[in-house]
Amino acid sequence: MQEEELVARAKKGNAAAFQQLVEIYRPVVERFAYQLGNRQDDIEDITQEVFIRVYRFLDQFTRAKFSTWLYKITLNVTRDAGRKRASAIKKVFKLQKEQREEYPAAEAIVLKNESDRTLHICLQSLDEKYKVPIILFYFHEKKYEEIAEILSLTLPAVKTRILRGKGMLKKALEESERREGETHG
């Protein structure tokens, strides 16, 4: 069944069609949420919140591509979760800065090998405005136009951010390799 047909049926209240949408897009949402820097422990909650919002606002969905809308929602839920986390940390630690967590062993299992882990860590070091377009382009195979729509940016802005982000990512990977060489050399 086509995406458009499933969405149309779900909009009319067909629970089975909505469930099919969830089943089809859950892995995409989970992967994107993780790549955005969410902890593995938070992925399930974020994914659930994404689909709650999809359900609540499905009647307002009019765009041509459902997946583009889903990426936008996932990005917004991730940002909201980040703000909530930051707020909770500020309350607990007052002015103390949040220290970057070392990736637990369970997350390391999710990553296929050390180079994937290094790439993931280097990606997380990028500013969101560069990280998100790179993730969408390279890991979710989105076209520049789709990325522009998801992020509400112009096409030239998307191209510039991907180009600059690639440069920053390359530099971070080279620095990581250099440090790795120093510790083993």
Q: Multimeric state of these chains?
A: single chain
**Overall SS class:** mainly alpha
Order of helices and strands: HHHHHHHHH
Judging from the principal axes of the Cα atoms, what is the shape?
elongated
Strand content: under 5%
Reported for the largest beta sheet, the result is: none
CATH architecture of the largest domain: Orthogonal Bundle
Our measurement of the CA-to-CA distance between the termini, rounded to an integer number of angstroms, reads: 56 Å
Mean pLDDT: 84
Write the topology of this structure.
Layout: H1 3-11, H2 15-35, H3 40-57, H4 66-93, H5 105-110, H6 114-125, H7 128-139, H8 144-151, H9 155-184
Helix pairs in contact: 1-2, 2-3, 2-4, 3-4, 4-8, 6-9, 7-9, 8-9
List keywords for this structure.
single chain; 185 residues; mainly alpha; Rna Polymerase Sigma Factor, Chain: A; Arc Repressor Mutant, subunit A; 2 domains; 9 helices; elongated
Describe the structure.
- The protein folds into two domains: 1-103, Orthogonal Bundle (Rna Polymerase Sigma Factor, Chain: A), CATH 1.10.1740; 111-185, Winged helix-like DNA-binding domain superfamily/Winged helix DNA-binding domain (Arc Repressor Mutant, subunit A).
- The protein has 185 residues and is mainly α.
- Mean pLDDT is 84; it is low at 92-104 and 106-111.
- Helix 2 crosses helix 4 and helix 3 (40-57) crosses helix 4.
- It has helices at 3-11, 15-35, 40-57, 66-93, 105-110, 114-125, 128-139, 144-151, 155-184.
- The protein is 78% helix and 0% strand.
- The protein is built from nine helices and no strands.
